[in-house]
Write the structure tokens for this entry.
Amino acid sequence: MTQHGKRYTTAAKEFDRDSVYSLQDAVTLIKKMANAKFDETIELHFRLGIDPRHSDQQVRSTVLLPHGLGKTVRVLVFAEGEDARAAEAAGADIIADDEIINRIMKESWLDFDATLAVPGMMPKVGRLGRILGTRGLMPNPKAGTVVQPEDLARAVQELKAGRVEFRNDKTGNLHVPVGKRSFDETRILENAQAIIDAVNRVKPSAVKGIYVKRVVLTSTMAPGVRLDLTNAAMKSIGSASSS
């Protein structure tokens, strides 16, 4: 049986854990319960009705959060020549030339938060799959992180502004950061709604029956609050949950 601390136990008394709540009410509850001494991260957790063993039922995409994640994002770009200069001008923190690629390979150096690559660099980047893949940092066309040179500046700016990648885990769940406890309710609500809409848009066509079975809003140290999938703010998910 999992043992929880006093703060968690006290927070759990603030609401009925067997009930479901509107997104607005859930945000209000989480803001009230997230009272640790640090700025807790708020997340959405989705239980999906997919079979993650099948390649045509994978859920993976990105979402541009309207209010970002409340942190500085260090962006590394795999590019050379003119592409590298364009990426640097757009605000990329690190341009990954051969020296950086070798450093990642030999030292498992990962002092960055997100990556981008132009297609021409992927033969070199492919050698880093074992290192980058385990951290969710491997550039991938499906995630929008392998981009054409003409789209590189926009992609860098979006990552810096708060573009977040999400993908299901081996159990068919999604875990997506929404923001920080220090955000006001409107920013949390709008970020959460953007995530919900993005998850709905990428429902695999091979999925039959219920797509989204459960959604929980939580913070680092507080218990999760189940969302009402029939609520107006969750309409997109609710409509996608029956087929």
